[in-house]
Design goal:
Elements lengths: L1 H6 L5 H22 L7 H5 L2 H10 L8 H13 L1 H14 L9 H20 L4 H16 L4 H4 L4 H18 L19
Helix pairs in contact: 2-6, 2-10, 4-5, 7-8
């Protein structure tokens, strides 16, 4: 009896739910970033990503590199800090509309892989447990992109339900509130 119920389950529900779960797991850190301070724009304006790069280098990432080799990258990261933080927030909050159009999941999943690759290169933080499902979902969408069952994921009903599922996933799954440097998962040193 139980098996017969699962046979009737529409298989497109699983990728749709996975995409909504991805969106929730990105939206929550975005919310955390803007709620770390009293003003909503403080994380955007004062989050020194370039300092994370230098701190990682001082702790052994890019260990063979000299200061002269690191300095141009530091200056470039410092100059593009507003751009990178803006991209991060736009990406995390933009995930809410992941099922709005057929091409958006691919755009957001590629952006997620690029984002995590950039974080790895800049800091040595490896998000392999995020990469694996994102790449798997990209593979699934790429191999079945033109099939009618994939088109069902982007129906009017799915577009309406996806923000509700994303909002529902936040209190159910409680994703990590990674706000970068002010996160409870970051070790902070006080030098005296």
């Amino acid at each position: 009896l139980l098996v017969s119920k699962f046979r009737k389950l529409d298989a497109t529900v699983i990728p749709s739910l996975m995409l909504c779960l991805f969106a929730a797991f990105y939206l929550y850190p975005g919310i955390a970033k803007v709620s770390l301070t009293h003003r909503l724009v403080d994380w955007f304006l004062y989050n020194p990503v370039h300092e994370l790069f230098v701190a990682s280098w001082l702790h052994g990432w890019w260990g063979g590199a000299t200061y002269e080799q690191i300095e141009p990258w530091y200056e470039w990261l410092r100059a593009t800090n507003l751009l990178s933080t803006g991209f991060t927030l736009a990406f995390e909050f933009g995930m809410v509309v992941i099922l709005l159009h057929r091409w958006l999941p691919a755009v957001f999943l590629v952006a997620a892989v690029v984002f995590h690759t950039t974080v790895l290169l800049a800091s040595g933080i490896l998000f392999w447990e995020w990469w694996a499902p994102e790449l798997a979902m990209l593979g699934l969408l790429a191999t079945r992109w033109r099939r009618p069952d994939v088109a069902h994921i982007f129906s009017r009903r799915e577009r309406f339900l996806s923000p509700l599922l994303i909002a529902f996933a936040l209190p159910v799954f409680w994703p990590y509130a990674l706000g970068w440097l002010d996160s409870p998962y970051t070790i902070v040193y006080d030098l005296e």
